[in-house]
Amino acid sequence: MTPKTLFEKVWEKHVIDTSLDLPLLFIDLHLIHDVTSPQAFNLLKEQGRTVRRPDLTFASADHNVPTTDRNLEFKDLLAKKQVDALIKNCKEFGVTVYDLDHPDNGIVHIIGPELGLTTPGKTIVCGDSHTSTHGAFGAFAFGIGSSEITHVLATQTLPQAKPKTMNIQIDGEMPDGVSSKDIILRIIGEIGTHGGVGHVVEFTGSTVKNMSMDERMTICNMVLEAGARSGMIAPDETTFAYLKNRKFVPKGEKWNEAVAEWSELYSDPGAVYDKTVTINIDNLAPQATWGTNPGQVTSIDKTIPSPKSFTGSNERTAAESALDYMDLNPATNMNEIEIDRIFIGSCTNARIEDLRLAAQVAYGHKVHNNVTALVVPGSYHIKRRAEQEGLDKVFIDAGFEWREPGCSMCPGMNPDIANPGDRVASTSNRNFEGRQGKGVRTHLVSPAMAAAAAITGHLTDIRKWNYKGGLRKNEAFS
Amino acid sequence: MKPFRKYTGSVVPLNKSNIDTDIIIPTEFLKRTERTGYGQHMMYYWRFHEDGEPNDDFVLNNETYKQATILLSGENFGCGSSRENAVWALHDYGFQVIIAPSFADIFKGNCSKNGLLLIELDEAQMNELFSREKENPAFSLHVDLENQIIQDDSDWAASFTVEPSTRHKFLHGLDDIDLTMTAEEDILQFEKQRAFYMDPSVN
User: Fold this and answer.
1) Is B193 within the bounds of a domain?
2) Which of A131, A408, A411, B28 is in Cβ range 3.0-4.6 Å of A143 for a Cys bridge?
3) At a CB cut-off of 8 Å and minimum separation 6, what does A212 contact?
């Protein structure tokens, strides 16, 4: 038999045998949220259609929701209208919805795995580009537009051209202070923001094998920023240990049967990818972006590159206009860039391990006088867990704001936006112009780096940090 | 969707790579539950100053280009967020065709569902178009989707390729869902043999 990649195995199990032009893919899990679904439901109703598989459709309100007191009336009436529409549409069509106060509410890409809805080998879609996050479990997960949402609601399928495959092999041991966020930022820096266009990326290599699920989700989440259709990682013992006993996974003997099937999901030896990239991270330094796309990134101990150092004329012009927007000069030390706000949150970095790392940095320190610092857990599960571990107290004592879950400052759709001209160190995934508010300048960093910047008031090399309570990687903080 | 066969329109150049969907329609304008009315906010931060006055330096605000319906742009157009509002905004603003060296995947999919035609040309062809446009402010292009040929009023012409199923849909104005539902029997058959662990387990 021809050796197959992980992606090909999952793909082949989902192509429905039809006489249509394009392969028709069955969708196992459809996640929906407040911002991209109202128009899709409207179209569904206009066309007189219904939801084919409400049992495979799950919704959470996340993009628009206020992260301050949930009991407050929404200040933003348009946002309220979208959240209300989500809840009403879900009730009308029998779709499970985790609304604002539900104990399982949170960012869709965080609650999917948390509830065990995200499992290996599934096809998963959502009207949000960072759906690639779920690929960390060996699912084929990708973002779709509103018309496609209507299509999935009506048919539980999607016509899809088969993407190409790319192997990104990551080897080496993660140096202290370096996180999976730094790895994926470096990768985007290397292959560029369209290096992955048309491809599904599989992450392989010893580093990936040793990563926790939280770390794996961060790299799959952000591979989208390299233009990839999605990211995937073959499920293994780490995956199964994470999923076992979660709400929607099979239990008892059924669990064993499922694990046996899931264990077949890996790329066969000799499987051919359309493209392969290798990276060694033994000497990787923490990363921070200096420009207006995630590929404009460098090490924290370096200086901002000169636009002249780019060979292509497009890249040179892009660097010039980025530095202009960011109000930065070439040759400035990255670790001298002053920060007005920090944001720890988003589907990229708002999981429990992210919060632990940030809390270890914050412990015993105080947020700089000139800085506003926001910590927004990715879900109520994470919030409760963090509070059990006392992380909320560490943050609050240090002067960070501890919020309710939601997308918050990542898309900047809710009241959580910065002021024009503000410079933000953010654990989110996009540093586009205006992403976090008009004229706002975003530097993408890891949770530990964001916490450190909150305290010093400037981007800071976390490798030199004074951990007043010690550093314990991936351990509960107490 | 209306059928799309031949189209002629005037051209506006926006020679920049990686124009993302946050630029095309900023997040603050996404809060509508409708699929219409986004054109007024298309590329808002580029078209308008902070005080809401038009930015006269921005090419789309140039009188010459007010009627343009064909956009020339740089590589990786439409990258970033999956928001289909970006396509609705471009279409609502008046664009019928976008020509660039490459487009982002999700954006491409979204355009194929809304009758906004994307044409990919190589860099040399793009450069030729940009320079011809520069010399001729009333530059128009004729797009023939049936034969996949694009030409100007003088001697320039190029062939292009649109993904066959998208082309078929555009030419006949077909709706995706209706097409899929012609295979409903096949979907039913598939559903019957799915593994138990593909469904959320409620026990």
Assistant:
1) no
2) A131
3) A238, A353, A474
Look up tokens 């949930």; give the residue.
Answer: A70
Q: Which two tokens stand for residue A351?
A: 């999981």
Q: Is A90 annotated as a binding residue?
A: no
A309 in the same domain as A241: no
For residue B195, list chain A residues with Cβ-Cβ distance below 8 A: 261
Evaluate whether residue B196 is within a structural domain: no
CA distance A328 to chain B (A): 20
Q: Say which CATH number the domain at B158 has.
A: 3.20.19.10
The predicted model gives A141-159 an average pLDDT of 96
Q: Mutating which of A50, A130, A140, A155 best tests the B interface, going by the most B Cβ atoms within 10 A?
A: A155
* Domain total in chain B: 1
Return the residue of A nearest to B28 by Cα. Answer: A413
For residues A293-306, give the mean pLDDT.
Answer: 97
**Average pLDDT, stretch A111-127?**
98
Inspect the interface and report whether the beta carbons of A36 and B84 lie closer than 8 Å.
Answer: yes
Residue of chain A with shortest Cα separation from B21? A432
How far apart CA A431 and CA A325 sit, in angstroms, is 11
> Would the CB atoms of B79 and A194 count as touching at under 8 Å?
yes
Confidence of residue A473 (pLDDT cuts 50, 70, 90): low
Residue A407 known to bind ligand: yes
Test A145 with B83 for CB contact under 8 angstroms.
yes
∠ at Cα A308 (A302, A313), nearest 5°? Answer: 125
Q: State what percent of residues in chain A have pLDDT above 70.
A: 98
Cβ atoms of residues A269 and A297 within 8 Å: no
**What is the C-alpha R_g of chain B?**
19
Q: What is the DSSP letter of A63?
A: S
Question: Does residue A242 carry a pLDDT above 90?
Answer: yes
Domain extent for B61: 6-174
**Residue B23 Cα, gap to closest chain A Cα (Å):** 7
Contact A168, A183 (CB under 8 A): no
Which of A9, A11, A14, A21 should be substituted to probe chain B, the one whose Cβ sees the most B Cβ atoms within 10 Å? A21
Instruction: Specify whether A140 is located in the same domain as A242.
Output: no
pTM of the model: 0.92
Q: How far is CA A405 from CA A97, A432, A458, in A?
A: 16, 23, 26
Strand partners, B9: B141
In this structure, the answer to whether residues A340 and A450 fall within a common structural domain is: yes
Closest chain A residue to the Cα of B22, Cα to Cα = A435
Is the Cβ pair B106, A143 closer than 8 Å? yes
- Are A154 and A169 found together in one domain? no
Asked if A203 contacts A304 with a C-beta cutoff of 8 angstroms, the reply is: no
pLDDT greater than 60 at residue B174: yes
Is A220 one of the annotated binding-site residues? no
Contact A36 B82 (CB under 8 A): yes
Answer whether residue B189 is part of any domain: no
- A146 chain-B contacts, CB cut-off 8 A: 35, 84-85, 110
Contacts of B32 in chain A (CB under 8 A): 39, 78
| Model confidence band, residue A303 (pLDDT cutoffs 50, 70, 90) | very high
The domain spanning residue A206 has which CATH number? 3.40.1060.10
Residue A21 has a pLDDT of 86
- For residues A450 and A301, membership in a common domain is answered with yes
- Calculate mean pLDDT across residues B144-166: 96
Specify the pLDDT at position A128. Answer: 95
Span A201-226, pLDDT tens digits: 999 999 999 999 999 999 999 999 99
Predicted pLDDT at A477:
59
Q: Supply the ipTM of this predicted assembly.
A: 0.92
Give the tens place of pLDDT for each residue, A64-84: 888 987 765 667 788 888 999
Q: Among partner residues B50, B79, B198, which is closest to A193 by beta-carbon distance?
A: B79
Report the number of distinct structural domains present in chain A.
3
Report the distance separating Cα A108 and Cα A120, nearest Å.
17
